[in-house]
Amino acid sequence: MLKTTVIGASGYTGAELALMIHKHPELTLTGLFVSANSVDAGKNISALHGNLAGVIDMTVEPLVDPEAVAQASDVVFLATAHEVSHDLAPVFLENDCQVFDLSGAFRVNQDGFYTEFYGFEHQHSDWLKQATYGLAEWNQEAIQKSQLIAVAGCYPTASQLGIKPLLENQLIDTQQWPVINAVSGVSGAGRKASMTNSFCEVSLHAYGVFTHRHQPEIATHLGCDVIFTPHLGNFKRGILATITMKLQPGVTEQQVAQAFEQAYQDKPLVRLADGDLPRLQNVQNTPFCDIGWKVSNEHIIVVSAIDNLLKGASSQAMQCLNIHYGYPELTALV
Amino acid sequence: MLKTTVIGASGYTGAELALMIHKHPELTLTGLFVSANSVDAGKNISALHGNLAGVIDMTVEPLVDPEAVAQASDVVFLATAHEVSHDLAPVFLENDCQVFDLSGAFRVNQDGFYTEFYGFEHQHSDWLKQATYGLAEWNQEAIQKSQLIAVAGCYPTASQLGIKPLLENQLIDTQQWPVINAVSGVSGAGRKASMTNSFCEVSLHAYGVFTHRHQPEIATHLGCDVIFTPHLGNFKRGILATITMKLQPGVTEQQVAQAFEQAYQDKPLVRLADGDLPRLQNVQNTPFCDIGWKVSNEHIIVVSAIDNLLKGASSQAMQCLNIHYGYPELTALV
Amino acid sequence: MLKTTVIGASGYTGAELALMIHKHPELTLTGLFVSANSVDAGKNISALHGNLAGVIDMTVEPLVDPEAVAQASDVVFLATAHEVSHDLAPVFLENDCQVFDLSGAFRVNQDGFYTEFYGFEHQHSDWLKQATYGLAEWNQEAIQKSQLIAVAGCYPTASQLGIKPLLENQLIDTQQWPVINAVSGVSGAGRKASMTNSFCEVSLHAYGVFTHRHQPEIATHLGCDVIFTPHLGNFKRGILATITMKLQPGVTEQQVAQAFEQAYQDKPLVRLADGDLPRLQNVQNTPFCDIGWKVSNEHIIVVSAIDNLLKGASSQAMQCLNIHYGYPELTALV
Amino acid sequence: MLKTTVIGASGYTGAELALMIHKHPELTLTGLFVSANSVDAGKNISALHGNLAGVIDMTVEPLVDPEAVAQASDVVFLATAHEVSHDLAPVFLENDCQVFDLSGAFRVNQDGFYTEFYGFEHQHSDWLKQATYGLAEWNQEAIQKSQLIAVAGCYPTASQLGIKPLLENQLIDTQQWPVINAVSGVSGAGRKASMTNSFCEVSLHAYGVFTHRHQPEIATHLGCDVIFTPHLGNFKRGILATITMKLQPGVTEQQVAQAFEQAYQDKPLVRLADGDLPRLQNVQNTPFCDIGWKVSNEHIIVVSAIDNLLKGASSQAMQCLNIHYGYPELTALV
Question: From what superkingdom does this record's organism come (chains A, B, C, D) (predicted)?
């Protein structure tokens, strides 16, 4: 049994992780932590996430001695703010923990990226180089070997899973940038009080247009420019991404279907919607990514749907763990 | 034209007031104010309430000199916190303004009430005595004469409009206390950031059980004990109150119907749902109170529905203004 | 492994059952059926319930020969309309199947009840007598022995779990009838097209006042009259019941707490909210019932929350199965 | 006073029209009609639309003699199905009524269009030629003169108002087709029972991809190809359209801003969101179209928001009426 610790247990992704660790036959939940100065320190996890009452009975502790926690853990999930992950990951790594980081702190190995998009200068370029991008369906081999998995972002997961099969098979004309329109549930903003996320103010709108940090994350890992427009929707969880692309001349519907089928034939967490288009509801509270598409002459529209807290964060982290340790991919997920 | 000022224009009820003043043929909107230290001071009203763009173009000013504002106003609406109304109302009253206070600061003239339920000691007992309770359908005469209208609370409006016709006609057995179960939209908590009202946390639940300050407001003005259980619902606006009462022996359905019809026959803002029961949606964004009921032997269930921001606050304030000045009751409301 | 069949697989409770059977280590899902003339016959279960894609791959068959299905099954779940369950249950029972009926067809053994509240005359009074009411926490022994479990209704489950501990300990004054106000999600009405349940028409309102068939179900099984007022809420799943009762003179808070604790100390699916009150969200998508209460002098308000499709239907059916066969109570549930 | 009739009063747009006619100082509401065989014939309008109780008290009559209704009317609004409008409009026109048709029956004067996209052959090509497309901000002169106004569709209104200023000023490179992603509230599907629109089934998804009839409506009236992807959102009313376009080389932000400002400087119902992006909530229940945009090098994203039942249907019809008769444009709208 692997001793498994969650840092950042007060948030929504932390709660999902705790629940999956609890279900996983090879993991023992050994600790739940929050920042030392968090108001949530000392509370029972079920006082923060009422749905966990009767399932997990454990105090959320303040992280005062990361070193000691590291020494007591085999596996660490970081469900923490980007800056916090940036600072903590090396501590756990140097103590031989296997680390799954759900933040953006180790996702993009590119000069100036963190300064521009995250507002801090990256201090751990070695670890940044060694980190493996945790897009589970596409980086399986690297995930098996790497000690630090930078789990892919929520929008980037939905987007890339919809684009990569076409891109890899050179079916799209990338001179005309793919247009990604995505709508996310409010939980994507985390568990916190803010005017923007207050119930009466939430209302469908676009935000972060041309400036969202997930645009370069997508573009870098695809190796292709994209236009990415995120929206906030009036629902709690889920992301629906609608991606418009230009096909290369002569590409047929059959080629498109084949590309998707080949890419995901042995990937149990991607469901290809045969002729139909995904509905957000079908993926909410599930670890799946649903993908559907329509072709019209030289254009294709791909729709991709995930639960932002699961396939877009926690369950993909657990999927990476299953891959890394060679457990069946669906363990603790379905 | 009456020069009309709104204090507390950054909130939801303030915005509704601004819009109604704008529509009212006898009123001129002369000023919109917030507390001197509010972050919203200096913004255009439409930057705070986007729906007002293109309708009202006015800066929300910091209230630095209430005396000066009072002298420039004929009518003042206080859409402010209880303590703020408590402090400001006398300033406006002493400057001969007609005051409509939407807070709870002048609603209950009872020893110890404000200390117990509002957490402050009331300093203006003279004004408290002179204040008229603004439950528009029931206090018409007093509203015509009074300089200070303490507009009835949201839950108290829905509750009392459903109970008073039966009580006044002695149709209910008050030894068995009326049981009021009410569900309110989230806007009842005001326009602010808080964990409780954050989109992902809002979920139907009861709160303030046996302790909510609207229980004594209802009981005092009815002259009858009640059990009042408020709930937060997952919608933006509206209150639905379901009231269970015991009838006096021998009371017939006909007597019940007659009591409601007599009470509201010339009250255009109360709609009696003939045989049917109110649906929240029908009153949302309207100034109406919908009332329906069912009788079974010795019990009666009355359901009453209002928009908490309108009939439960702003439109009832305007209705009181119309009554006070003798304008047609529906002016600026329908 | 018990060969397990679901009749009524096109509905929401049928889908939940299929998923739980799939997860259960002692059950094999051997068949999913709908009425012979259903438009859903012949479709894959995942075409009806998209969330099941990638999890359960099975055709929903038309039930043309119940006898044959019975002979191929050890366990049958009836997630069918009341009349259909009434007709089918005997067929399965006489073929030695263990039957869990989620409809109301065998819940109330009282003369004239089905004619008055369900609109049909009951033809199987023998089975009605032998049926055990599936309120899992309270009928454990009978459930162990009975071949026909009439799983408790959704509102009755939430209501009785909140009232029985007080009633059994004679803490409440039943001369003043308990007042149950409950709000249910729209899925309670089943999976079908109707004006009432169309998205734009759904809006909080009371219905079935004094006439809902769950009132006599509750009253009969409690042995105490109650006033039951159901409401439709603007959410998909869950029931929150707020129950107002009069305590016997002299009853203390401590006695109340003790009654709840004793009743549920070894019942893992009832969670007592210590001092707090339940939030619907915490039970949605879970098999739990959350119960909280507040006492004020001679009155008590109990709030009880369940997922109507799970603890109010499918998971309680599975819980009864676990009890019946002696499997750990949480198997396939948490 | 113009005698004004609404055909199709049982639907959501019919109700909105009735309310606006009621408010309009130059119009008298002389009749509300539904199809002769409608179940709603004979009901009071407030029994169909509870929010109208206490405001409009009028029976919805079956349309048995259109000729007679025409002779009793000066103005007719057709809030009817496409085929019904197609058949009825000529009757009213030939009786000298001024007709505002909210359906798609007279919007696109193109060979084969109705056969392909509406499934019927158009029989009134003369009227189709004479009809004026009711996109109020862009066809003012023609609207003033025309007897038949084919009010623009909901998606086409949101889309064209966001694209036309750029297109008319030749700021966009139309070789790369504008990509319109739009999300509509469920009321867009009309007031009816259907599985797709049942509360529990509604969930964000794309539909009608590459096949929706609003694509050719937009393309024809713009004179430019577009990719149009409609989505159903989990809200009752409103449309948010996000439009991604390529700018002509060298086009500056200033030129873009200027184009929008010039186009809408004297158009009171278009609100340009200065630097900000529209939020759906701000236009719900209003007659406004909010437009915002962001430029990044050679790309521009325009976001446009309307209430689908108002600016996307009824209030735009009334706006066209105001323009046609020379009344102030905001009459009965704000």
Answer: Bacteria
- Inter-CA distances, D303 with A204, D154, D180, Å: 11, 15, 9
Mean pLDDT in residue range D270-277: 89
Question: How much is the pLDDT for C240?
Answer: 98
Q: Could you tell me whether strands C205-206 and B299-306 are parallel, antiparallel, or unpaired per DSSP bridges?
A: unpaired
Q: Which residue has the tokens 């022996």?
A: B249
pLDDT digits (tens, 9 = 90+) for B97-108: 999 999 999 999
Q: Which residues of A touch D205 (CB under 8 A)?
A: 240, 277-280, 303
DSSP-assigned letter for residue C153: P
- Shared domain check, D113 and D15: yes
The answer to the question of residue A289 being in a domain is yes
| C295 in the same domain as C163 | yes
DSSP H/E element including B240: strand B239-246
Span D72-83, average pLDDT: 98
Provide the percentage of residues in chain D whose pLDDT is more than 90: 98
Report yes or no: D75 and D321 within 8 Å, Cβ to Cβ: yes
Residues A60 and A162 in one domain: no
Say how far apart CA C262 and CA C264 lie, in whole Å.
Answer: 6
Residue C143 belongs to some domain of the structure: yes
Question: Is there a single domain that holds both residue C222 and residue C138?
Answer: no
Q: Where residue B65 sits, what CATH number does that domain have?
A: 3.40.50.720
Amino acid at B212: H
pLDDT at D307 exceeding the cut of 80 = yes
C163 and C182 assigned to the same domain? yes
Instruction: Show the tokens assigned to A229.
Output: 């427009």
Q: Is the pLDDT of residue B273 over 90?
A: no
Q: What is the dihedral of CA D48, D52, D54, D59, to 10 degrees?
A: -50
Within 8 A of D50 by CB-CB distance, chain B residues are: 279, 281-282, 290
Assess if residue A27 is contained within a domain.
yes
Domain containing B162 equals 154-306
**What is the average per-residue pLDDT within D205-216?**
96
Residues 6+ apart with CB under 8 A from B211: none
Residues with Cβ < 8 Å from B51, sequence gap 6 or more? B15, D281, D282, D283, D284, D285, D286
Please indicate whether residue D274 or residue C282 has the higher confidence score (pLDDT). Answer: C282
D320 and D288 belong to one structural domain: no
- φ/ψ of C14, rounded to 5, equals -60, -40
Taking residues A80-92, what's their average pLDDT?
Answer: 97
Distances in whole angstroms, Cα of residue C145 to Cα of each of C92, C140, C228, C333, D310 = 17, 9, 31, 22, 62
pTM, two decimals, is 0.97
Q: C32 near C58, Cβ under 8 Å?
A: yes
Average confidence (pLDDT) over A34-57: 96
Residue D125: what pLDDT? 96
Q: Tell me if C179 is assigned to some domain.
A: yes
Interface of D with A (CB under 8 A): 176-177, 179, 181, 183, 201, 203-207, 209-210, 227, 229, 231, 233-235, 238, 240, 242, 244, 277-282, 284, 294, 296, 299, 301, 303, 305
* Overall number of domains in chain D: 2
Q: Give me the mean pLDDT over the A242-254 stretch.
A: 97
- Report long-range pairs for A314-317 (Cβ below 8 Å, ≥24 apart): A314/A13, A314/A16, A314/A17, A314/A20, A314/A79, A314/A102, A315/A16, A315/A20, A315/A287, A316/A134, A316/A135, A316/A136, A316/A151, A316/A152, A316/A157, A316/A287, A317/A17, A317/A77, A317/A100, A317/A102, A317/A134, A317/A149, A317/A151
**CATH number of the domain to which B266 belongs:** 3.30.360.10
The DSSP output letter for B151 is: E
Residues C167 and C90 in one domain: no
pLDDT of the residue at A259: 98
Residues of D in contact with C236 (CB under 8 A): 199-200
Q: Indicate if B163 and B194 belong to the same structural domain.
A: yes
